[in-house]
Amino acid sequence: MNQTAIARSWVEHANDHGDFPLQNLPLGIFSRPGEARRCGVAIGDAILDLETVLAAGLLDGPARTAVEATRGGALNDFFALGRGPRMALRERLQVLLGEHSEHQAELKAALHPASECQMHLPARVGDYTDFYVGIQHATNVGKLFRPDSPLLPNYKYVPIGYHGRASTLRPSGTEVRRPNGQTLPAGHTEPVFGPCAKLDYELELGIWIGQGNEMGDSIPVAEAGEHIAGLCLLNDWSARDIQAWEYQPLGPFLSKSFITSVSPWVVTAEALAPFRCAQPARAEGDPQPLAYLFDADDQASGAFDIELEVLLWTARMRDEGLPAHCLTLSNSRSMYWTAAQLVAHHSVNGCQLQPGDLFGSGTLSGEGPGSFGSLLEITEGGKQPVHLSSGEVRTFLQDGDEIILRARCTREGVASIGFGECRGTVRAAR
Ligand code: MN
């Protein structure tokens, strides 16, 4: 790899940083103790306060417009501006933070250690939709119920999804209170009420919607990529026992709506551009997408090559100073539909998408053991306990367990970038 081709920053800890080098520059909403929420950009182990950069007179034109749109402690208005101002801000910040910057002294005053800042949700989410486009996950889960025909007939025609609950989206680090609910324990004929006994995680990507559409209009698939502002990690915490009892005929309800965790940094479409790839070919015999879901350019470069990881850190591991146990290594190429296809499908009936809406991809599992994105799959519904590096075993999550999602993009010849973490620790039911 030709290292000299990779631009460097005068912020030394950003160079070769696992997540946030100069090439990433994800946006988020942060606050310092006692201060209001504002927009920042992650650079190495620091956060660059864009309000301070603006006040120093270092931004003008569309880059200035972009930062002005972040005021109010949410990125919705910034997302609504679309790609132009977002790119202008990115290009300006790469100059300001680049190793030849003439403004290092002013910018140093705008840098805060990330460890001293609190991260918040990036946007006020009007609507959250969870899809189900990880085909390996859908196959694995389907097999538990229908070994002979795991995928229902619509799966390869329709990007399956349901309307989730925006009010309980929370940033990484928010504790996960074990939900109470109705379940039908094995051997019972009537349900019982109490704490969920089968608490699970789901490894997903989050898709942040940029510019939306008017109600009644739809977004053509060829233009849909323009409506995606960026990506994050998303943990769709799931109460499997509540889900099993409630989900028919209309799908998940209270088994999902108690909390959904997201990583706080929006990794922009521009930062992800080097890691786009062709949508994997459909299996022999699979139908072609209907015309409104098919675009040749989207098929050629609309997928993402993102490595995904899930770690479990139990209370005992923390107490004994042991590292977290890796449960899952997976990749976003397991999406059967591209992000643009999700946008096109969601709006094809005239449904309005708005800036700051959030999509979940669905659980992104790989093909083999070690790549499954939920305990439901890893333990085959709780039948095969997973043995942890600490000597503990799990079928589902216990109180005190922390789940950590990570994501990373690597490609020969370009700087690697990451998403930061999406963490959550399970607390006892109330
Ligand atoms: Mn899900």
What's the pLDDT, averaged over the residues?
Answer: 97
CATH class of the largest domain: Alpha Beta
What overall geometry do the principal axes of the alpha carbons give? globular
- The oligomeric state is single chain
How many strands?
A: 26
Under CATH, the topology of the largest domain can be stated as Fumarylacetoacetate hydrolase, domain 2
Just name the CATH architecture of the largest domain: Alpha-Beta Complex
Low-confidence stretches: none
Task: Please state the CA-atom Rg, rounded to the nearest Å.
Answer: 22 Å
Task: Estimate what percentage of residues fall within beta strands.
Answer: 25-35%
**Ligands bound, unique:** manganese (II) ion
CATH superfamily of the largest domain: Fumarylacetoacetase-like, C-terminal domain
What does the main sheet amount to? Answer: 8 strands, mixed
Helix coverage percent: 10-25%
- Span between termini: 53 Å
Number of helices: 13
By secondary-structure content and strand pairing, the structural class works out as alpha+beta
Number of domains: 2
What does this structure look like?
The chain is of the alpha+beta class. The protein has two domains: 12-120, SH3 type barrels; 128-427, Fumarylacetoacetate hydrolase, domain 2 (Alpha-Beta Complex). It contains 13 helices and 26 strands. The protein has helices at residues 50-55, 61-68, 76-80, 83-96, 104-108, 135-145, 221-224, 240-246, 269-272, 296-301, 315-319, 339-347, 375-378, and strands at 27-31, 38-43, 46-49, 111-113, 118-120, 128-131, 161-163, 169-171, 176-177, 180-183, 192-195, 199-200, 203-209, 228-235, 238-239, 260-262, 267-268, 276-277, 303-304, 307-313, 325-331, 358-360, 386-387, 393-394, 402-411, 414-427. Strands 6, 7, 8, 13, 14, 16, 17 and 22 form an eight-stranded mixed β-sheet that branches. A five-stranded antiparallel β-sheet has the order 4-3-2-1-5. β10 and β11 (192-195) form a beta hairpin. The longest helix is centred in the N-terminal third of the chain and has 14 residues, at 83-96. The chain starts with 26 loop residues before the first strand and ends with a strand. The mean pLDDT is 97. The chain binds manganese (II) ion (MN).
